[in-house]
């Protein structure tokens, strides 16, 4: 599995379990998600050996909540934030400068492509600004990436936009983690 992390904050932004494609400019990833509903809540005492008393209601005192949202946002704990067009423009200029500097240090071969294609990506984003919801990583670091959420023409299918050069890819392999001892092997006897 590949995990895509913000190069500034280290926050997980998405993984390769979603449909991912590059945008026309080649500067961004478009990641398609799904709207999901999840039930979260307490485990009833009866499931862990407790004895339900006569004072407890029929539901066994189970308190659960149902949350719904875009799976990318829920799975990676992205945090919604807000922008006016003017403040987003200021953020975007600062962010683009930071990414260009990072590329110069870590991937100098990418700088020319980034400088060439970033304005096209930014122009497309600003043209569609009113349709976006904005999300930061879990840390909510204001210097990090702000991902954009929109919906396809069907009005049902969500997708998010992430700046490609603002991400680092981490390979996560459960088999390797088991072999390294970081995750206990279920075959081991205790």
TrEMBL record:
Cross-referenced PROSITE patterns: TCTP_2 (PS01003), TCTP_3 (PS51797)
Domain TCTP per the UniProt entry, residue ranges: 1-172
Superkingdom of source: Eukaryota
GO CC annotation: cytoplasm
Matches recorded under Pfam families: TCTP
InterPro entries per the UniProt record, alphabetical: Mss4-like_sf, Mss4/transl-control_tumour, TCTP, Translation_control_tumour_CS, Translational_control_tumour_p
Molecular-function annotations in GO: calcium ion binding
Family the entry assigns: Belongs to the TCTP family.
PANTHER family in the record: TRANSLATIONALLY CONTROLLED TUMOR PROTEIN-RELATED, TRANSLATIONALLY-CONTROLLED TUMOR PROTEIN
Name of the molecule in the record: Tumor protein, translationally-controlled 1
Organism: Latimeria chalumnae (Coelacanth)
